[in-house]
């Protein structure tokens, strides 16, 4: 993750736009490594084939150098690496480092509101969505007890509950198991 130390203040509405404009020319130089930027977050995704991670490591080093050369400071505490590897027995490679700090290796992380796990299972994301929806159902029940018109209750459900349940559905739905799809009762 890149934390900008220059420019607009943290939380300013212009910050994501300015970051996008400022980092627009920061791109990946290798086909097997994708650089994804959203607001003020940057994610590198590397496909490592034949145990050759040199392209990935070069891109990490290149990104660190680019940030340094453009007055952006990487926050090493917020920078993580997650390895997805379905081979039977693997020895994870040593993590790359950012500014002489090794990157923490994690089993899952949140990316744009969706929890991605090493085994690419969607249960943590779906459980989180269901929990949020259940918490908001309380308010729907309170509105129903207050005898609000049905149309307003439907509007509340659509805006406050359904929007949560469908927020990242295009990401996880195809990979969800039948058990995961207990969400569909909503």
UniProtKB/TrEMBL annotation:
GO MF annotation terms: 2-oxoglutarate-dependent dioxygenase activity; methyltransferase activity
Transmembrane segments: 154-175
Keywords: Membrane, Transmembrane, Transmembrane helix
Superkingdom of this protein's organism: Eukaryota
Domain Reverse transcriptase: 1-116
UniProt xrefs under InterPro entries: AlkB_hom8_N, DNA/RNA_pol_sf, RT_dom
Protein name stated in the entry: Reverse transcriptase domain-containing protein
